[in-house]
Amino acid sequence: MRNIFIVIFISASVLAYSQKGERMDLYNYDNPSKNNPALYINMAKKAKATGAAILICPGGGYVMEAFDHEGNQVADWFNEHGVHAFILKYSLGKFDGSGSKHPDMMHDVKRAFRIIRANAKKWKIDPNKIGVMGFSAGGHLASTLATHFDDGNLESEDDIEKVSCLPNFCILAYPVIMMKGEYTHWGSRRFLLGPTPSRLDVDFLSNDEYVSELTPPTFLFATSDDNIVPVQNSINYYLALRKYGIPCEMHIFEHGKHGVGLAQEDKTLHQWVGLLEDWLIRWKIF
Fold it and tell me: How far apart are alpha carbons 173 and 139 in whole angstroms?
């Protein structure tokens, strides 16, 4: 319960930041609203563009979204390296379960990824160089895409829905992974699944249990003394990746608070960004 109230307490300041980039609604609405799930498109300069793209899922416990330090700043960093960046505004839950809940969020991230891949030619993106990145609860959403992707529905009348939503690579920063057991972030679970989640949904969204031989190469960053999302979430996901022989790299720093984003004001933690850059170079994303 403590972590739920921490998330609520900080939400007012985080929501004060506006989303960066051109907005595209995920779905066709009869009555469009600024609260509808959407993509914010941040294209790299043509002279720098590598042809790669990233879908960014900010954190916020599935009750809000940290658009500045886990969205806008991250998009800027990728743009500087020639990668087109898409920030996802996804559905959010409410404490009493009356808001959005699973599978709404999973549908959002799948739809967002399909939009990017379906428009690859238009945006001059290599459809085989599209990744997903998530922070905290956004890391749970990113890992949900990496473990619960599908090949698309060829019978759909919507061309976007015909496209695979399997990411080519995945980046997880201090992610929520597990929905059961002592290392669960209970706030994220409540806002994602409601106050009375089904055992089926709890199992299905414990993403370390759904890693497979098709899960994409993954980079993980976390801190040992994270007092919001226990580091065991990252460790268990890493072990699951190793079990299936998935290429992966994990960096766990001894100290560091939760929710640091790119950690630009912390000299020690900011090293994780350089390590990520090296990893992306090796995978020919940069």
Answer: 6
Q: How far apart are CA 84 and CA 35, in angstroms?
A: 24
HSE, CB side, 13 Å, CA atoms: give it for residue 214.
12
Q: Is 33 left (phi over 0), alpha (psi -120 to 50) or beta?
A: beta
Q: Where are the domains of the chain?
A: 2-22+35-282
Contact present, 51 and 124 (Cβ < 8 Å): yes
Residue range 2-22+35-282 in CATH 3.40.50.2300: no
- pLDDT tens readout for residues 135-148: 999 999 999 999 99
Other Cβ atoms less than 10 A from the Cβ of 239: the count is 14
State if pTM tops 0.90.
yes
What does the pLDDT look like over 99-128, one tens digit per residue?
999 999 999 999 999 999 999 999 999 999
